[in-house]
Amino acid sequence: IAKAKLENEAAAKVGFEWKLTKGIIKDAEAASAEGDYSKALNLAAQAKYHARLGVLQQIVAEQNWHLSVPQ
After folding, report:
1. DSSP 69
2. What is the model's pLDDT at position 67?
3. What is residue 31's three-state secondary structure?
4. Running along the chain, 71 residues long, what does each successive block of 10 average in pLDDT?
5. What is the reported pLDDT for 66?
6. pLDDT attached to residue 22
7. Contact (Cβ atoms closer than 8 angstroms) between residue 71 and residue 30
8. Cβ proximity of 3 and 28 under 8 Å
9. Between 20 and 30 A from 26 (CA), which of 32, 44, 61, 69?
């Protein structure tokens, strides 16, 4: 869960944090608190994946911004 939070902070830092990711992290924390560690790990992995996609989205947007400019 901590790694997912760090990845999400990186996505937020570049301005591409996904709204969905925070909810998944909260669900992972709740599952961990309830002792459902398998579910918590699964959710944390999902959150980490979504955060990485946010960072990747920023990279793609930075490289291709000119494609959005009307001609």
Report:
1. S
2. 87
3. helix
4. 97 96 98 98 98 97 90 82
5. 87
6. 96
7. no
8. no
9. 61
Q: What's the pLDDT score for residue 52?
A: 97
Rg (CA), the chain: 15
Residue 50 near residue 20 (C-beta atoms within 8 A): yes
Token pair 């961990």 is found at 32
The residue count of the chain comes to 71
> In terms of Cα–Cα distance, which of 22, 43, 19 is closest to 31?
43
Q: How far apart are CA 64 and CA 60, in angstroms?
A: 6
Instruction: Report the 10 Å Cβ neighbour count for 67.
Output: 7
CB atoms within 10 A of CB 48: 21
0.85 surpassed by pTM: yes
pLDDT for the residue 18: 95
